Amino acid sequence: MVNLSNQNTLYPIHYSLGESSERVIIHQQDDLCITHEHLYQDATPTRFYQQQANTFCFVLKGELYLQQKQEETILKKHQGIWLNAHIVNTATLLSPIVELCLIRFKISDNSTPISPIKKVSSGTVESGLGRNHIKTWPLWQSSSGSISLELYPPRYIETLYYQKAATQYILSLDGMALISDREKHSKKCDNLGKVIPHKVPRAILNPSSESIIVLSVTTSHKTKGRVLLLKKTEPSLS
């Protein structure tokens, strides 16, 4: 396995998986690894996964059939499941195109198998109120970090904040989120998402007239880590 944990590595890094299919490493550090895979059925009908640490597999597009030892399930769009470490996981594409987001937290905290095989989505977990009263579906939460779906209402402007020690990854699923910085510069969150290091101010904006859903991944922090940056003028949607 290639070590890409050097902070100076330029991401994203693209690797071919045969013909049109590819693997894109978006972020790889000791506390968090984010990878996307763009798979085409005619080029890569089946993928085998055997990871050093438990890895959360979230379907961004398409449908696949997954086997872990004697257990099996079908994963559809916006459903996720843990691929246990050191076990061969077999994924067979059931649609012409499948896009996956693979999430791995700190390896030393994620070597114990997670069983039984269980997929999670907004339909299998209860929603609650997250930061700034955003509707949130907690897909996973442990000492290593958290994975959640967040719904932002129309014309929403989030209060600027930063994480004291945690890294955050944000990916738009339905609709297009904008991410604002301290200078109130807003940029679209592209189809590979955005990794935001600790102590870097950010705020999510929804300029559209429809609600949007965002995948949010946050590494662990031992104390209350979110710090609001209150200003007289909030970021603009224009």
Description:
There is one protein chain. With 238 residues, the chain is an all-beta fold. The chain is built from no helices and 22 strands. It is globular and about 55 Å long. The N and C termini lie far apart (45 Å).
How is this structure best summarized?
The strands form 5 sheets. This protein has a 6-stranded antiparallel beta sheet with strand order 1-2-3-10-5-8, with no helix packed on it. A 6-stranded antiparallel beta sheet has the order 11-12-13-21-16-19, with no helix packed on it. The protein is built from no helices and 22 strands.
Distance between the termini: 45 Å
Helix tally?
Answer: 0
- Which secondary-structure class do the elements indicate? mainly beta
* Beta-strand percent range: over 45%
> Tell me, what's the shape?
globular
Unreliable segments of 5+ consecutive residues: 1-5
What do the pLDDT scores average to? 87
- The string of secondary-structure elements, in order, is EEEEEEEEEEEEEEEEEEEEEE
- Note the quaternary state here: single chain
User: How many strands, which pairing sense, and closed or not: the largest β-sheet?
Assistant: 6 strands, antiparallel
Please count the beta strands (DSSP E, at least 2 residues each).
22
Q: Summarize the amount of helix as a percent range.
A: under 10%
Secondary-structure blueprint:
Blueprint: E1 13-16, E2 22-28, E3 32-40, E4 46-49, E5 55-61, E6 64-68, E7 71-75, E8 80-83, E9 89-93, E10 97-105, E11 128-129, E12 135-141, E13 145-152, E14 156-157, E15 161-163, E16 168-174, E17 178-180, E18 186-188, E19 194-196, E20 203-206, E21 212-219, E22 226-228
Antiparallel strand pairs: 1-2, 2-3, 3-10, 4-9, 5-8, 5-10, 6-7, 6-9, 11-12, 12-13, 13-21, 14-20, 15-22, 16-19, 16-21, 17-18, 17-20
